[in-house]
Design a protein that fits this description.
The chain is flat. The protein contains five helices and no strands. The protein is mainly alpha-helical. It has helices at residues 7-26, 41-64, 75-95, 97-108, 117-138.
């Protein structure tokens, strides 16, 4: 194997790093029990899932060697992804979770090729509905599905 890094390996390592940081951050919080998950339980479970996914992706990258796509960083796409996350943070309280997730997905779609805004908008609405069901209805998070900016 060449010493040249590919996108699969770097993506896997990035997932492992992010998952590890979130796992470390959740260790200060109470995990609770299986019947009543504490504030640190869910982030820890998600972090472990991200770490496992990172290991799988990194191993795939190692197996591929340099056969995969060589590393290229496109700064404009990176700025678009970061902007979508910032917009989500700025709008989630006022617009609600459903609208914020859909907006985040739509903005992030500007970084993909081919650009499909209608498909990504619909995907964002479905993802927003799933997030609303899981986090608001399922876990009881104090966030509105549709926020006060829209009169709800």
């Amino acid at each position: 194997m060449s010493s040249r890094l590919n996108t699969e390996l770097l993506s896997g390592l990035l997932f492992i790093l992010i998952g590890s940081l979130f796992l470390i951050g959740s260790l200060d919080l109470s995990f609770g029990t299986l019947r009543r998950i504490g504030p640190g339980g869910f982030p820890a479970m998600v972090a472990v899932g991200v770490i496992i996914m990172g290991v799988i992706v990194a191993l795939k990258g190692i197996r591929m060697g340099t056969a995969g796509e060589a590393l290229r960083i496109n700064p404009s796409r990176l700025v678009i992804i970061i902007a979508s996350i910032v917009i989500f943070g700025l709008t989630v309280r006022g617009a609600g979770l459903l609208i914020s997730v859909a907006l985040c997905s739509l903005i992030a779609s500007f970084a993909s090729r081919p650009f499909r805004p209608i498909a990504m908008g619909l995907y964002g609405l479905c993802l927003g509905a799933a997030c609303s069901a899981a986090f608001i209805l399922g876990l009881g998070m104090p966030v509105r599905i549709i926020g006060p900016w829209f009169g709800y």
